[in-house]
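Write out the 3D structure for:
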Amino acid sequence: MPLIFTIAWRNIFRHRGKSLVIGVILFLGAFLMTVGSGIITGLDRGLKDNIVNSFTGDLLVISSKQINNAVLTPMSGAASEPINNFIQFRSVLKQHKMIDHYVPAAQGTPMVMSDEGDPDFNFIIGVDFKQYRTMFPDKFRVLEGRQPKDGERGLLLTEFNRRTNYEYLLNYWVIPEGAKLVTANLSKEALTAYTKGTLRVKEKMVFMGMNDKTSAMDIMPPVLGIIKFKALDTFIGISNLVDIETYRECFGYTTAAESHVTLNKEQASLLTNADLSDDDLFSNETMFGSAGSSASDYSIHSVKQETARTLVVTENHLDVDAGMYNMIFIKLKSGVPLLKAVNVLNQDLKPYGVRVITWRQALGEIAELATIIKASLFIFVMFIFFVAIIIIMNTLSMAALERVSEIGMMRAVGARKGFISKMFFSETAFLSFFFGGLGILVGLITITILSWIGLSTDNDMLQLLYGGARFHPFLTMGDIVACLIQLSIVTVISTLYPMRVARQITPLHAIAKD
């Protein structure tokens, strides 16, 4: 073995040109693989911090009747299927060993109306602000106005929606209730109008909810604050935050503030016979009410709507969880595998008519864009991997053919094919260890410097590449080990064919060449 190493070391210096070419290729391949791994890991960690820990959680619970998983970005604007029994499985989530935090919510797409009656749409998410801040603390900043107080009704309007609403629909600029206009936050178009003295300013917006019963109502919640997410605001800032009670009012669902409903005899009878035919339903005169009431006072829909208004009172205060939601954000405990949690929770929650999806499924096209960018980076790294193998293989094969006399002489004095193979592999291994190791080291230093510099951008696509507003690539020990394994695989595969070529050289080939 020492003899093989000695001969291999001598051959590296004897054929400096080809050794340098192979070394440079190994260096560049290892460097690019290391930097690419650092960017991919940084992208994953950035998305985890700026989306999972700031907006969606790891998992979402949705109704089993919900067909489209992209509940946070429904391109059609269709409402998600409601979850009316959250209070029944709340204890399951609260006591589950895999769950760290959870917060129930309701997402919808009401119309926003301009003064001229022109409609557009905004996404809104209804939450209990206190619960939301507990699960997602300090993940957005308040540009104007303030945070809501516990139990306060109102709207947190995102800077993204305020700007786009003004530019494409509204003819006024929205500011928080009781606040002054901050000219530094005006968009380019709004600033132009302000300079001309034509900018209109309002403290409220009108939202028109919709549902399949067309019993929703317009709401005009006070704007408590203008917020901006700390990263990826263009993507996750499409959703305003509103208190859950206002959301329910907007879409015609029952609010927890409404009183218990007591059915009189006529209402109870109507509900009991809701499945009867029209003839049966109206054959009984009592169905039209007793004295002092009329048939127009009641309908099957209105009675069902009233009886659906479940109210739970605990310790003399209303339990808002008794009302309607259509999703529950879940943050898992550290170290819990995502797919395992999905399977376990789906089994545990199946009896309640709900199912669990991942945050990527809930985000739909936004998550797909991030996945495409990550896959593109991975394919680029693998392409470098493949090109390095081809070039090194060709270079070593040419080297073997140019060393026919040398290899033929070694075979003539007793060197076996195995010895020749080991010699070639040792030469490549030396080059791979030195140049490839140097490439990994330089790649690690580069990633550290890039992370320390902390490049930032406002470009939407670059933020997806960065995993946030700042470019923060990162290498784990697993990434470094993976790079070493990839380098070893390149070394082994690239020497297979050249070794075969060298093994076929005989003393006769050497004589014929001379």
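The radius of gyration is 34 Å.
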